[in-house]
Design goal:
This protein is α+β, with helices and mostly antiparallel strands. The chain has two domains: 132 residues, Immunoglobulin-like (Sandwich); 41 residues, no CATH class. The chain is 47% helix and 23% strand. The chain is built from four helices and seven strands. The protein has a four-stranded antiparallel β-sheet. Strands 1-2-5 form a three-stranded antiparallel β-sheet, with no helix packed on it. A hairpin with a 4-residue loop joins β3 and β4. The N and C termini lie far apart (126 Å). The relative contact order is 0.08.
Length: 242
Amino acid sequence: MKKRLSCLFILLGVIFFGVNVHAASCSAEELKNMKLEAQNIEFKYELVLKNYANSADEDYGYDVILTGINDRFYFLAGNYDYLVDYSKAVDGSITISNVFNDGGYKSKIKVYGSSKSECKDELVRTIYITFPYYNSYSTRKECKGLEEYKICQKTTNTTNIKEQQFLEQIENAKKIEKSKKEKQEPKQKEEKNIFVEFFNYYSKNKIYTIPLTIALVVIVVVIAFMISKKKKKQIKIDLKEV
C-alpha cells in the first residue's frame, strides 16, 4: 500500500513540477511574440468534389491550405480537433484534407506552440473559416443561360431540393426569360420598322429625295465655307492690329 502511495506521490510531483516548469518557460513576452508570429499564418480553402461508388449523389468538402508556418506550431483542426503538425508540411505549407466536409457552416483551426517553441501547448491563435454551400445543380446543362437565377448559382443551398423541384424551378426561370424577350421584341421591331420605312420612302421617291439631299449637302458646304472665310478674315485683322 505504501509503495502504491509513494508511486502516486511521485507521479503527482512529476505532473505538478512539469506543469510549473512549462509555465515558467513561457514568459508573457515570449507568448506575445508567438501570438504575433502566428498572425503571419495565411489560409485559403479549395472545393473538393467527391463521387462515391454506386451513388448518383455528388458529395463535397473543402481542403484548407495553411502557409507561412514553421515547426514552432501545431494545429487542431475542425470540430473534433484533428491534429496537424509540421511533419506534414511541404515547403512551408500544409494541406488539411478530409476534415471540413459539406458547407454552410463555420469552423476553426486552433494554433498552438509546439515542443520546439518557448510556449509549448499554448494557444496562440484561432483561425475561423466559414465554408460556403456548393450547388451541384449549377454545373448542369439545364442551367446554361440561367446563371443569374438562384437555383443555378454555385453557392446556393440545394440540400433539400430534389430533382423534380430543380426541374420545376428551371421551367419557371425559362418562362421569365421568355417573357423578358417578348417585351423587348416589340421595341426592336419598332426601331427596325422606322428605319425600313425611311429607307423604302427614300428609295421610292428618288426623284425628290436625291435632289433634296444634294441641295442640303451644298447648303452645308456653303455655310462651312463662309464660316471658314470669316474666321480667316478675322485672323488677318487681328494680325494687322498687332
